[in-house]
Amino acid sequence: MASQRIGVLVMSYGTPESLDQVEAYYTHIRRGHPPTPEQLHELTARYEAIVGGFFPLRENTNKQVKGLENTLRQEHPDLEFVCYQGLKHAQPYVEDGVEQMVKDGITEAVGIVLAPHYSTMSVGGYVKRAKDKAEALGLKIDFVLDYYLHPKLVDALRTRVDKALEKFAGVNRNDVRVIFTAHSLPEKILEMKDPYPDQLLATSKVIAERVGLTNWQFGWQSAGQTAMPWLGPDILDVIRKINQEENVKNVLLCPIGFVSDHLEVLYDIDIEAQALAKELGLHLERTESLNTDPLYLETLSDVVYKKWKEVTSLS
């Protein structure tokens, strides 16, 4: 019999559930400012190109949240972990998840973001929203801030690189340029001494070491369309450059900054980057997304439980 109920707020970016929700979603991202007809058409067309009406990120996130709850309960049968979703730009919002926990009688909770690497502009933003709402409602909640070098996460990513390299039949694996990628953020994070770039490079290095890679680099992707400069170089520019200057013909993209199949993977890589590769005569592959890989769910379970133990031992 479970002796204690612990809430787990699982936070992620969010996505619309259908094409008719794209405008409201985009408006929320733009802080209440509706997109222009051109901007709305472009985003809607991207969703149509990858999904045809089915939105994989929402479904993948639902499965990840349920999978984490199941994993926590299997590994800690004496405790009753209950997972709640909190999304940044779609319902249920981060604040909705906190409110639902309180309504359900949860008195202590752990928050975690479905992103292994910390930035004040990404994970930090989720944490602030959840903390503010929790304080207003009297909920005790603590947060996992990152888990970018967790052994099980590294193992899951290493396995994916190894498997994807097999797709380059007849090519020496040292002749395949492996490029680790993550979502770009505004350059101003560098002035803030934000840990995001260093954490991503640390994950890349340990995977490269585990796989035995000598031919790898890092690139950014999916930068926002704003007046402020974003971290680069962009992956499309990287692909052009290594093809033109180094005559690279085989490229493996490993999007370590993303944990499930969604727009930045299914469109920005599988459609946009693939189209460029075809134009340049490149063989381009990417590693499979983590989605509900047991090793990833165990990573989340481990860090959530560890955070809860840390907090309870101090109280």
UniProtKB/TrEMBL annotation:
Q: Which InterPro entries match?
A: Ferrochelatase, Ferrochelatase_C, Ferrochelatase_N
Give one GO term, molecular function aspect: ferrochelatase activity
List locations, semicolon-separated.
Answer: Cytoplasm
SUPFAM superfamilies named among the record's database cross-references: Chelatase
User: EC number(s) for this protein?
Assistant: 4.99.1.9
Keyword field contains Magnesium: no
**Residues that coordinate or bind Fe(2+):** 183, 264
Keyword Lyase in annotation: yes
Q: Which UniProt keywords apply?
A: Cytoplasm, Heme biosynthesis, Iron, Lyase, Metal-binding, Porphyrin biosynthesis
Pathway noted in the entry: Porphyrin-containing compound metabolism; protoheme biosynthesis
The UniProt record gives the binding positions of Fe-coproporphyrin III as 13, 30, 46-47, 126
Q: What class of enzyme is it?
A: lyase
Catalyses: Fe-coproporphyrin III + 2 H(+) = coproporphyrin III + Fe(2+)
* Classification via Pfam families: Ferrochelatase
UniProt lists the family membership as follows: Belongs to the ferrochelatase family.
**Classification via HAMAP family:** Ferrochelatase
Summary of the function given for this chain in its UniProt record: Involved in coproporphyrin-dependent heme b biosynthesis. Catalyzes the insertion of ferrous iron into coproporphyrin III to form Fe-coproporphyrin III.
Full protein name: Coproporphyrin III ferrochelatase
Question: In which organism is this protein found?
Answer: Paenibacillus alginolyticus
Its lineage reads: Bacteria, Bacillati, Bacillota, Bacilli, Bacillales
